[in-house]
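Look over this record before class:
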Amino acid sequence: MSNQTGGCMQKNLNSFFTITKSIMSIIRSIMSAGGTAYLVGGSVRDIVLGRELKDFDIEVHGLPIEALEAVLASFGTVILVGKQFGVLRITSYDIDWSIPRKDSIGRKPTVELDPSMTIEIACRRRDVTMNAMAIDLGYVVEHYDDLYQKSMQNKLAVIKDFCIIDPYNGLDALAKKQLRAVDKILFLEDPLRFYRVMQFIGRFDMVPNDTLDTLCKSMDLSGLARERIWEEIKKLFLKSSCPSLGFRWLQKIGRLNEIFPELYVLIGLQQPQEYHPEGDVFEHTMQALDAAAQQLLYCDDHEKMIIMLAVLCHDLGKAITTTSDARALGHEDASVDLGKKLLCRLTDQQDVCKAVGKLVRYHMLPCQFIADNAGLKAYKRLAIKLAPETSLYQLLLVSLADRQGRNGSSTKPLPCDQSFYNVFLHRASQASVIHNAEPPVLQGRDLLDVFTPGPQMGKALALAYQLQIEEEITDPLELKQRVLEELARK
């Protein structure tokens, strides 16, 4: 284990112990009532992997939902986030408390809660073996001081000392970086698991075994709500450093054309060698995706999602604009239309679609600006075109990923072109339009003595803004005078 990995593991264990200590009394009350509380699913997986512990999912066996609700109610207000699905929360605790359940097949499954279910059977109903592990929190509470001291002394063997329950060899799958279905029949009952495999591949850099690949090749994906698919695509883009692995897997099992036909047609579509030594447009897009994912570590989720989707769509138009000499003039506008088609299958979030469309349409301009040594007015005009949905900074990140996706000797993106990034950022900063367009100097209230609100005032304000940018007029009185003079001449 490297020092860095060990440090991450220690930090995550500290988080685990802190949360566990805060709910000790709840765990003991559950035990006194006859129940057993298990930490389950991805929470256990992340502890084993030394990853940040973002979720703390507890499954309580041996108590009906009403009894669990009564226990939790003595520690705070119970929130029924999904009582029909056996999921409860307590205010002030970011934890899901659930009862084991059985789901019927279908888009609207019926749910049967089964508090008598064994932990082995409960784990069997999970998707892949790395998520089919559990930790008995009662055991942890009883041995808390000893386990905590071992952790502080770096002597804690997580798997051994936590007595991790692993009925389906999830630990072996993690060690071998394999994704394996827990139960082939149960896996096929929920088509969303197909997309979960896709995002797991990208997030954990793991490879499905042959059995799981075979299941996914022929799995029926019909009937899935768009919203559920969107949530898994978001996880792929937001939590993965190599989202390309998910798309490459779709290609490998023969389902890319079915799910993302706009990407499939990019396979084998060649580009000019001098600009794109990496090969076809699909390879370029995959490298650019990974570049974007790796450079967006400090963006918020909304911003990152917009940029990732823009990178995904930025060259789709080459499929219909590429000529016999491998040139693709006008592919930007064509990519906007094809990107809309792709996005409409994933989401109805119009703000996201508009922002992505603008980033795709103008993704070539940062390179052109630097090559042409464009003036500050050009940066201001471009910022106006991008506003209000997106910004020059986001456009720069898309363009930077585009430049990085050109590695002819590896599938990994090229290192960040820091000089390109710095030059564009410096010029946008000089123009004061990195994150927003320049605000208008003249407002409607400044023209109320001349115009009533309506089309004429709108025309005057548009002209004022144009004069402000083109002639760099920053004094509102001077700008108002110029507007009135210009309108009088027309």
